[in-house]
Write a structure and sequence with these properties.
The protein has a domain of 148 residues. Helices cover 69% and strands 0% of the residues. The protein contains eight helices and no strands. Helix 2 crosses helix 3, helix 5 packs antiparallel against helix 6 and helix 5 runs antiparallel to helix 8. The longest helix has 27 residues. The protein is globular and about 60 Å long.
Length: 233
C-alpha cells in the first residue's frame, strides 16, 4: 500500500511539473523559417521527391551519422552482455524448453520471410522517392529474422558474417560521406554522383546508395541483436 501511495505521489508531482507547459502550447498554421528553407531548396539541391530523405541524409547528415553510431554501440553492448552471461557458467547451457509454435506460424513464416526481406530492400532503395529509408528498411529485414525465431525455425546466421557485413556497410557509409566532402559541398553531400532524372529510381545523386548502406548496416546490427537473444542465459 505504501509503495502505491509513493508511486501515486511521484506521478502527481510529474503531472504538476508538466501542467504549466501545456498552457504554452499553441497551434501553428505554417512552417518555421528553417523548414521553409528546406522546402524551397530541397528539390533543387538534391532532386529528391521525398524531402524528409534530403533532410535526414544530407542537411542533417552528421546527426544521422550519430544515430547510426548509437545503434552500433547498442548492438555491441547487447552482444557483450549476452556473451558474458553465457560465459559466466563455464559451459554450454541447454535452452529451456519452449512450447512448439503452431503449424500456421511455421508455414506463414516460410511464405512471408522472402517477402519481408524483399520489402525491406524496396523500402531503403526507394527511400528518396517514397516514405521510408535505411533505418526503416533495415528494421523490416531484421523483423523477418525475429519471425523465424518466434516460429522456432530461426536461421543460423553466423555472427562473423553479420559483423563483416555491418563493417563493410559502415565503411561504405563513411566513405560516401567523405566523397561528398571532397567532391561536393560537404559531408554526405550526395551530389558527387549525377542527379539523374527527377522521380526516377536512379536519381537524387548518391542518396539511394547512402540509404542502401544504412539499411544494410541497420539490418545486420539488429539481426545480430536478435541472434544474441537466441543464446540461452
Amino acid at each position: 500500500m505504501i509503495k502505491r501511495l509513493i508511486l501515486l505521489g511521484i506521478l502527481a508531482l510529474l503531472a504538476a511539473s508538466f501542467l504549466p507547459l501545456t498552457g504554452a502550447l499553441e497551434t501553428r498554421n505554417g512552417v518555421g523559417r528553417l523548414a521553409q528553407e528546406y522546402l524551397d531548396r530541397g528539390p533543387g539541391d538534391y532532386g529528391a521527391p521525398n524531402l524528409v530523405t534530403a533532410v535526414v541524409v544530407s542537411y542533417r547528415g552528421l546527426d544521422t551519422l550519430g544515430e547510426v553510431t548509437v545503434l552500433f554501440a547498442a548492438a555491441v553492448g547487447v552482444s557483450l552482455a549476452f556473451r558474458r552471461k553465457s560465459g559466466a557458467h563455464g559451459h554450454d547451457i541447454e535452452p529451456s524448453e519452449a512450447p512448439e509454435a503452431s503449424e500456421i506460424l511455421k508455414s506463414g513464416t516460410g511464405l512471408l520471410l522472402p517477402l519481408i526481406v524483399a520489402f525491406g530492400i524496396y523500402i531503403f532503395i526507394h527511400g528518396h522517392l517514397t516514405p521510408g529509408g535505411g533505418f526503416q528498411g533495415g528494421v523490416v529485414i531484421a523483423s523477418g529474422l525475429l519471425l523465424t525465431l518466434l516460429a522456432g525455425t530461426a536461421l543460423d546466421v553466423p555472427h562473423g558474417s553479420l559483423g563483416i557485413l555491418e563493417m563493410l556497410a559502415g565503411a561504405g557509409y563513411v566513405s560516401a560521406g567523405l566523397l561528398g566532402l571532397w567532391l561536393a559541398g560537404g559531408f554526405l553531400d550526395p551530389r558527387f554522383l549525377p542527379a539523374g532524372e527527377f522521380g526516377s529510381l536512379f536519381s537524387s545523386g548518391a542518396i539511394p546508395v547512402i540509404y542502401s548502406l544504412v539499411g544494410i548496416k541497420v539490418g545486420s546490427e539488429l539481426s545480430a541483436v536478435i541472434s544474441d537473444m537466441r543464446r540461452p542465459v
